[in-house]
Structures
1.
Amino acid sequence: MTATLVSALVIISRLDYGNAVLAGLPHSSTAPLQRVLNSVARLVCGLRPRDHVTEALTNLHWLLVTGRIELKLCVLVYKSLNGIAPSYIDDMIQPVSALQRQITLRSATTNDLFVPRTRLRFGECAFSIAAPLL
């Protein structure tokens, strides 16, 4: 059982490594990662291949892959807003109130973040756009 748990935790840590770059990708790109997560949950809980894995994920307190990606982005935004993040992340996220040309907007009085415009669908995957949207 310990070998199963160790291998599962190694797989989970590798799955979470750098998943913030996967923000905004279509379901077809994140589905293979979700299948890996489902397989690990089946392995840890001793489920058969045809058993539903949703309850096992809930019992293990594991998020779906899209939820993990969103959580990672939100944590990075939180760290940036509280001055804990590295400077290169701070440079990508700006509050609306910090921008001179946006100071008269109603959103400048709230904690909204500036979302740069992009013309490309692939541009929405960029951290500087995906993070403020969340």
2.
Amino acid sequence: MNQTGLVIVVPEAEARVGPMRRRYDPQASLGVPAHITVLFPFMQPELVDAEVRRRLKRLFRRCSPFVCQLAGVARFPATTYLAPIVAAPFIELTRAVVAEFPDYPPYGGAHAGVIPHLTVADGDARAADIAEQELRVDLERNGPITAHCGSVRLLENSTGRWRAMDEFGLVGHQG
């Protein structure tokens, strides 16, 4: 099924964990950059028209850019991820999108809450164990990953690979 998602791309993390993601996260080989999800799944790509883009642009312009630090390593059963020290800005973005587009709950409504995270390994518990060890060593050696979060990217996968459809700046009080 063709899908879209709204994400904050984290190039600062790609520089550090890109090789691990390519080894342990199948989505990385499909074009998904290092990111923290704002909302997935969103609407099908063919439904994203000029009006939807206008609404997204207006919504995100009201939100301020922020800096996040990824300093924690955490797990779901077959997933290892980096966790932001402060999750609130990501949760607030998700809530804002869901308030504007209530037909699209996070993860299709499968989970009661939202846990902002940057996936490094996914789909295999053994690979997730290895990635967890590698991430802990990296963070101990190099410290947290600091990232500027200044936009939300709309990704789509209608060709089987993920690509950017649009990008919306977080402007907030700056204008």
3.
Amino acid sequence: MISFTYTRISLLIICAFIMGSIPVGMLVARAKGVDLKKVGSGNIGATNVLRSLGKGPAALTLIGDMLKGTLAVALGRYFGLGTFYEGIIGLSAILGHNFSVFLGFRGGKGVATSLGVFILYSPRTALITFVIWIAVVMTTKYSSLGALISFGLLPLNIILFDSKEKLPVALLVTLLILMRHTDNIQRLLKGTERKIGERL
């Protein structure tokens, strides 16, 4: 019985990784006849889609990337695997987005997919994270800074507003966000980071 449970968990983790690997931004851009890797920053996320293709395609990309995370957690919940494994399966979807099997294990920064995970995993902290991100972006026009600050505060918000059982996953998500934004951090420090809507 235990072996069957861990087999199921392993399969769900793999499924979530593959689902997370779907490059929504690239598919949206391809439908418009654009190779997203060759325009703007070359990133597959919604910010580059916005910069390169406009608001409509960016919104589709954002929603699609978020759904990958939400559906991954929903799978874990459907099979009754408990809070910890729901988070691990969601984390696998984020890793899939960041290291897509369809893009030679390259990918995006995982912000939208991470938010999608927490929409179901911890709705209150997801809302707080989104509000902080919006506030920072509206104030500074830097999407990367919004992500860094909002997800940097995620573990603290989990402690304050949710179960500490979810803290390990929150810490791992925050670490991933920081790791994927190292170039952005350097550009922010140098004053060369591009603002939302700013073209190359």
